[in-house]
Amino acid sequence: MSFEARFCLSCGSGLHLLTQEEDSGPKERLRCAACGWTHWNNPTPVLAAVIECSDQGGRVLLARNAAWPGRLFALITGFMEAGETPQEGIAREIAEETSLQVQQLSLIGVYDFQRMNQIIIAYHALAHGEVRLSPELAEYKLFAPPDIRCWRAGTGYALADWLRSRGHEPQFIELPPKNPTVS
Ligand SMILES: [Zn+2]
Q1: Which residues contact 85 (CB under 8 A, 6 or more apart)?
Q2: Tens of pLDDT along 54-92?
Q3: What pLDDT was estimated at residue 177?
Q4: Distance from the alpha carbon of residue 23 to the mean position of ligand 1, in angstroms
Q5: Mean pLDDT across the stretch 137-164?
Q6: What is the pLDDT of residues 109-129, one digit of tens each?
Q7: Which of 15, 48, 84, 100 could lock 129 by a disulfide, CB 3.0 to 4.6 Å apart?
Q8: How far apart are CA 75 and CA 161, in angstroms?
């Protein structure tokens, strides 16, 4: 779920849904009646990587988050941090979560993930090294690109676009009822 503010970050008063005139017309948002502060609730940037292992025959590493139900494997993702570029951020996440070293990065695309109020910036990463997972990941698998199945949300669309760019028509699976979330 996206972050729901309850108190003003400026003065600490309670926030309320208040309508106010904005550039696009009247708009209801969580606002502070005391000082006028607005909780804009802008989407949070999340970085994601399709990791192609150059020393594993070009297979793609997908990992299962320890907190997820079921056995779903997904792209490596993480929040962008202050003071880093998206490229630095995804290389850091890949190193932290898999220990792999990135040789080359290229942007796949930018995708909305409205359910989580996130914007996903997805890269293809050519990487190598010995995989050692961080504790937040339970296991990983290396997939030949034609064997990959994509889900119809967020990172799944990034994976599908990358597969198409490699000449593989993506195949989709339906998600189980309890959707995984970007970590
Ligand atoms: Zn306030």
Answers
A1: none
A2: 999 999 999 999 888 888 899 999 999 999 999 999 999
A3: 56
A4: 21
A5: 96
A6: 999 999 999 999 999 999 999
A7: 100
A8: 13
Q: What is the predicted pLDDT for the residue at 69?
A: 82
Please give the distance, rounded to the nearest whole angstrom, from the Cα atom of residue 35 to the centre of ligand 1: 4
- Please tell me the distance between residue 83's alpha carbon and the centre of ligand 1 in angstroms: 28
pTM recorded for the entire structure = 0.88
Bridging pattern class, strands 118-128 and 101-113: antiparallel
Ligand 1 centroid, distance to 49 Cα (angstroms): 39
Cα 135 to ligand 1 centre (Å): 39
Cα of 41 vs centre of ligand 1, distance in Å, is 16
- What's the per-residue H, E or C state across the chain? CCCCCCECCCCCCEEEEEEEEECCEEEEEEEECCCCCEECCCCEEEEEEEEEECCCCCCEEEEEECCCCCCCCECEEEECCCCCCHHHHHHHHHHHHHCCEEEEEEEEEEEEEHHHCEEEEEEEEEEECCCCCCCCEEEEEEECHHHCEEECCHHHHHHHHHHHHCCCCCEEECCCCCCCCCC
